[in-house]
Predict the structure of Mutator-like transposase domain-containing protein.
Amino acid sequence: MIRIGTSKRYPQTQMRDVNIRCVIGANLAGIGDQGLAKLFGILNVPPPIDDDHYSHTVAHVLPSLRAHQQNSMSTAVEEACTQSDGRQLSVSGDGSWQRRGFSSLNGVAAVMSSSTTAKVLDIERMSKKCSTCIGALSIKHVNREKYEEIINKHSCEMNHIGSSGAMEVDGIYRLFERSQRLYNVQYVNYIGDGDAKILPKLLSNPPYDNIKINKIEDINHFSKKMLHRLQKIAQDLKKIKIDGKMGIGDMMINFKYYYRQAIVRNKTNLDEIVKSVWAIWKHKASTDLEPHHGWCSPMFCGFMKALEEDKEYDHTRHTLPLAVMNAIRPVFTELDSRDTLKRVLNGSSQNANESFHSILWSFAPKNRYSPGSIVDVCVALAVLVYNDGDQSIIPVVEPLTGGGGGYHTRVAMERCDKLRVYYEHKKKRKADVRAKMTEEERKQQEEKEQDDDEQLDDSYLPGAY
Ligand SMILES: [Zn+2]
Ligand SMILES: [Zn+2]
């Protein structure tokens, strides 16, 4: 005879410890109930809870998860207020869909703080369909009474009518609208990408009395202007002989990078940003006979570095012909104006939003449809993990299972946090080294790894303290 033990039942409920852990674990691992069934099968243990019990358990754990999620977001709001010395905050906002493209039925809109360690402040799950409404349709004509009962009793997941494209605008707007009620704060600076439709809505229907919301452009998006303008000039000059060669060649990627760096390094000081951008032009136009490195910094300028180390510096390999520099000068004049650059003053990026979304969709994979309640579970887990690290799941598990969370749970979550901190440090170190490289070294490095320079200032370290 084979005896199969099951876990203890938590007092006062029909819920078993193992089933609650299954729901949390399946979503945290991003495998869902079907993945769980496969895992159990290969592990040669009896199948996990069936579909009905699974949704039942989801409904049971959700309120708890939500409470912890709200707690984490409220704490993040207070942190942001302390950092910005008041209750008017700069936030970055972004929407993202469960599925790629605009056919998605579920999406989220989130605002994040732009503090040193960006955190999720508020989030809304948006759904175009409700799984209960759809499910109930099957009995609509067979048992009208039961159908009405289900429809009247359920809390509908559908909270968005209209295109998936409008979901982001709607969602972000809701978050702005409720910030005073929820946290007693106002989001006064909004960091979003250049073509976002959200700002017109925030300006035409101001969510706060007597406050005009200020748009700050996303640095990554903004610095691409440099690339696009230069590409256009290069295209125009393609067939024209400049300095003995055809066209101006391709040195555009580097300029975008330097431009971005000039903005990031001087973040809050408009004069310094303007100066640093112009320094790029002067630096590249320098020759041995006419060096113009007065505004350069030894941090990135090989000439200054050589000067500091009392070494010789040869301009020939770094300089661009004056004719080329003159051809691209209008781009610098345009993109180095105070008017243009004040849009990225205090600049920040949506990098944090992107990395949060990637955590979220690793829990609720983009390739399978999940009902709104499952997305809600994943949203709560993702907020907790992103804001406070994997170990913040333990206080959720503890009361739900009526135990101490479990030895192995604690060890595993601690390990997850350590691992991520390790990878983040590694990534940061790489970025630091790169920021200190001279142009030549960086070029070699870039060719070697073809890395994406837009990920550079991610400062995501939950669970590190
Ligand atoms: Zn419904
Ligand atoms: Zn220089």
